[in-house]
Design brief:
Oligomer: single chain
GO biological process, one term: protein refolding
GO molecular function: ATP-dependent protein folding chaperone
Family: Belongs to the chaperonin (HSP60) family.
Strand content: under 5%
Keywords: Chaperone
Shape: globular
Protein name: Heat shock protein 60
Order of helices and strands: HHHHH
Number of strands: 0
Radius of gyration: 22 Å
Structural class: mainly alpha
Length: 146
């Protein structure tokens, strides 16, 4: 009778060969501080620059970057654009370009010593105010009575 851990250890090399997409791939490098912020902001800038030229009816839907940290920044803001598309069905380009300025200013303030939690609270407060204003204006629209 074989013990389960022994069997699992014997199966791991086989499973990696037969099904490499099923093996776990963990992050190889962890970055903190100004380096991580700069790389994420570069990814955000790349995405915003790529989207800015498509202001209008034609848009791009995917972006691939080699650097993982830049890719994380680009994917973060791509998620913002996708959420905007699901909720409002329009304005995805603007929802990609405007947060670039928010991220840039936020990273600058954090690098100068501002408290990130306080910046987040202020952004949430402004978001709540904006939602309150948009609810008041959306009631007058005939196609949005939900």
């Amino acid at each position: 009778m074989l013990q389960l851990p022994t069997v699992c250890r014997q199966m791991r090399p086989v499973s990696r060969v037969l099904a490499p997409h099923l093996t776990r791939a963990y992050a190889k490098d962890v970055k903190f501080g100004a380096d991580a912020q700069a790389l994420m902001l570069q990814g955000v800038n790349l995405l915003a620059d790529a989207v800015a030229v498509t202001m209008g009816p034609k848009g791009r839907t995917s972006i691939d970057l080699k650097d993982k940290t830049k890719y994380i920044g680009a994917k973060l803001f791509q998620g913002v654009a996708n959420n905007t598309s699901e909720e409002a069905e329009d304005g995805t380009t603007t929802a990609t370009i405007l947060p670039r300025c928010i991220a840039k200013e936020g990273f600058e303030k954090i690098s100068k010593g501002a408290n990130p939690v306080e910046i987040r609270r202020r952004n949430c407060f402004l978001g709540c105010c904006w939602c309150g204003l948009s609810v008041n204006y959306s009631r007058s629209c005939s196609h949005r009575n939900s």
